[in-house]
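Deliverable D4.2, example record:
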Amino acid sequence: MPNMAMLIRATTILAALATTVQASEDVVRVRTSEGRTVTVQGQILDYTGVALRIRTDDGHERTFPAEKIESIQTEYDSRHQQADAALAAGRCEQALVLYGQALTGERRRWVRRRIVAQTVRCYTRLGRMAEAGEAFLLLARDEPGVADFALAPLAWTASTPSPELERAARTWIEMTSLPAAVLLGASHLLATERPRALAKLKELIVQSDGPAAQLAAAQVWRTEIVLVNDQKLDAWRRAIDRMPEAIRAGPYFVLGKGLARLKHDDEAALALLRVPILYPDQDRLGAEALWEAGRVLETLGRPDQAARLYRELIETHPNARHTVEARARWEQLIGEK
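Output generated by the structure prediction step:
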């Protein structure tokens, strides 16, 4: 079970999300079906993973799909602004403190939801995956959308979960009324309880839909890399093409690993590099992808390109799992020139 401190935090945030909205002047930029961008001004009444509701200046209520929202201008608490700045600078511990302070003073429900999303990013970057999971599930209980699932702190590598994370995952996997929780739990238990986790993922694929089912399928791919063939890789490519772009980072990583397994090295490098290039918020996975792409490029006999990737990994992800190895490879490749 999650520890008591975690449950207290979760209860506090859930209570915060339930609070009604307060008036404010907001400016929303919305992408139309024709590809144009329009500006709507008024008071945001609610903004979930599914839709944004706003009362415009003329008193009418309008609703827009969440995926059509390009940007929002509003007034944030100074601590919220400081937290965003700290997160952007990589000071995640400081950002968490500031987000906690901002949450207690923020009365708008949709802004509180945004704060919770930012805490998921912080916990994930810090490797505090159990806490990241609990915060993500708060969003998943509250009309989750594609953008929320893009934040899901899933496992995409073969690393063994910490004891705390494994205990949490065993709880999540049994929350059958919440597909996102089952997905999250099964993802982290693939390393230690594979038959049980696989069964749950396959149930999700059949019984659920949307991002939960699509990500469950991609999690199953992780177990199939060793026996992958070209036909299966083609099926993975088609499945990724059907996914919303926001949730493709992990699937691209698995596809890249599968391509590398079959020595399709050029394609493998391209698939892996999509992660750090297209999904810069995926800090930990981006670091893994840089390392794997560097190894592939070495196999292709492109040491200069591999060295550049290793250097990027060293400079942008100094605390990542493979940074020490990347530095050793970079120094050796540079020394061979």
